[in-house]
Amino acid sequence: MKTGRYNGGRGLVAEFNNKVAVVTGAARGLGAASARGLAAAGAQVILTDVLVDEGEVQAGQIRKTGAEAVFVAHDVTHEPAWEAVMSLALEQFGRVDIVVNNAGVAPTGKPLDELALDEWQRVIGIDLDSVFLGCKHAFRAMKIRETKETGGGSIINISSIMGLIGMGNGADYNAAKGGVRLLTKVAALEGAPFGIRVNSIHPGFVDTSLVRDAIDRSVEAGRTQGGLGSANEVIEMLSLSHPIGHLGVPDDIASAVVFLAGDGARFMTGSEMVVDGGYTAQ
Ligand code: NAD
Fold first, then answer.
1. How many CB atoms sit inside 10 A of residue 186's CB?
2. Which ligand 1 atom is the nearest neighbour of the CA of 127?
3. Model-level pTM?
4. Which tens digit of pLDDT belongs to each residue from 233-274?
5. What is the residue-averaged pLDDT of the chain?
6. Residue 137 C-beta-side C-alpha neighbours within 13 Å
7. What's the alpha-carbon Rg for the chain, to the nearest Å?
């Protein structure tokens, strides 16, 4: 990939001129922030999601900054949809350099002896099967080496701190995100001979609709069992469980995505980048 620019001791600034990035789950949250971050660093970005209207708005906002961005409706659990996204990228932009497997859903939130098999399978499908499909089809596109310039790339899989440590009532999500962690390492080994780097990111709690909705659901469930306080109290409690004292914001994760995508991370593959305000340092 193109060499990053060193800006006077303040770190490498990624530059993605002519590079093409695919970001899944880009209508909201971490995916939207990652798409904006990659576009700001010069990439042409294909945003994908099942939320068509919100995805179109995100792509439109990026285009207003002068960057190139398109939105494609895409269910990450559907293999033919992956083939269509990669075909569009290759036909319209001629290459695929960066794939961010970000789309995901929250845990069902039930104890494992109450979790139905179809609930388990839904979360595993969206949070793990999708990353397998994303790596598989990214590999096929990135292995196309018509010129020395077009082969290789960087795949970034969004796991979670819940891919590193367990959480009560999170069996489906923990299993999926732990699976993403090791799938990333296998992909890194298989991708290395082709110049394809594959890394995972493990965010702590970041203030997005995924977290807010999960909190609302658990508060609601707590109410019926006489448990948890208000959503604000849960946010406060969650903030304090991060030694840094607050939740993350989507741009905190987008910075890590931009770094891993760029040449500043050229010696990183198979690694797990933890971005969690110290949550797992305890
Ligand atoms: P979010 O709900 O704000 O955004 C997730 C996006 O994924 C949504 O736009 C949604 O429509 C999309 N999506 C869901 N199912 C899809 C499908 N089948 N096909 C295509 N798109 C689909 O959530 P977020 O917090 O931005 O989470 C993004 C990723 O980061 C997820 O993988 C999540 O597990 C992970 N993560 C989030 C946090 C956090 O605290 N927010 C922490 C660790 C990991």
1. 13
2. 32
3. 0.95
4. 999 999 999 999 999 999 999 999 999 999 999 999 999 999
5. 93
6. 25
7. 19
| Six token digits for residue 75 | 């269910």
Span from the CA of 28 to the centroid of ligand 1 (angstroms): 8
How many angstroms is it from 55 CA to the middle of ligand 1? 13
Is pLDDT of 141 > 90?
Answer: yes
